[in-house]
Amino acid sequence: MQVAFHAPLKPHDHPVPSGDRLIAQMLCEALGVAGMEVDIASRLRSRVADGNILKQVRLAELGTKLAGRYLRQVQSGSRTRPDVWFTYHLYYKAPDLIGPIVSAALDIPYVVAEASFAPKRANGPWAQNHQAVKTALEHADAVFSLNRSDMECLRDVCEPDVLHFLPPFTRVENWAVESRPKIDPANVKLVTTAMMRDGDKFRSYQLLAKCLGKLIGEGVDNWHLTVIGDGPARLQVEALFDEAGVGAGHVTFAGLCVPDETRNILAASDLFVWPAINEAFGMALLEAQASGLPVLAGDVGGVSGIVSHGVTGWLVPVDDMDAFTRCLKNCVTTDVDVLRKYGVAGASKALQHHAMASAADMLGGTLRKLVAQNRSGQGA
What we know:
Elements lengths: L1 E5 L12 H15 L3 E6 L10 H24 L7 E7 L8 H8 L3 E6 L11 H12 L3 E4 L2 H7 L8 E3 L6 H4 L12 E6 L6 H18 L5 E6 L5 H10 L7 E5 L3 H9 L3 E4 L8 H8 L4 E5 L13 E5 L3 H12 L6 H15 L2 H24 L1
Parallel strand pairs: 1-2, 1-3, 3-4, 4-5, 5-6, 7-8, 7-10, 8-9, 10-11, 11-12
């Protein structure tokens, strides 16, 4: 079965690493595991961050032209005719400007993974993009949500049988750690992984730095944090920790790491920490749990779909510095003995509920059913 794949926010092979790129790659891989041929239908980035109306109009015109070019390629035989169109990450700042046109012209199922719908954007600078998202979702044959909180707003525009919850997933076996060194209560090893950029990521780093600085001020300094990640705001992020009084003796910036390097750091750590401000769910949290690390994070979006409070880690009110600091203090003092227990539970949960094979089964089963129904309807 041929799948035309498109990620309008960020292509799966974009040179800048991010969670969006990783999930796009994971989806392509899962579709391949399900026995499907994946064709990257377009690399158009439709994101308009500032609500520029003229840019939205120009991108819409470009999307129509690219859809026409794609259809001509299919008609000429230079491109394999797809059985289904699959778009990843659809929202008012990055609508799908190609898929709805192509799927309607070819009369094939239109499928979306990870979409959000914000009625408040119906008026204002993003009104055109909002309408494009609304039209796409109204015509979608299936919408997979990796975040249950997104499903509530989608119910206003999608029929119930169109919505499917797809638990976030990864190659769990690639992150598994056979054994860990014994925890040293005098030096609990903390770790976090996140891109260093402005916005919510920066705010999470800011809260984390302040929490750690507060612990030092209270005389709780039996820990060391390793930060995995890089980005345009790296100097500013490093300055946050300096300003909070978290010096080189307590934090190491490992920079951008390849997966094997990240896995080795996770394997040598005791607790994954991330405030997760406005995080959709956090692939880094899932990878940490798959490696057997307990997680301390802010309770927001789909994070609770990955971290089970009191079982695989701890969830605190998001953007609450005092709550995060109190919990972190407990983790490195009174709760040190349960870190390994929660880590084992996290690895088990990842294997049972977040494995690539499970996602491939769900995606493959749903798409095959849609294609079969579509062909049956065409035959009638």
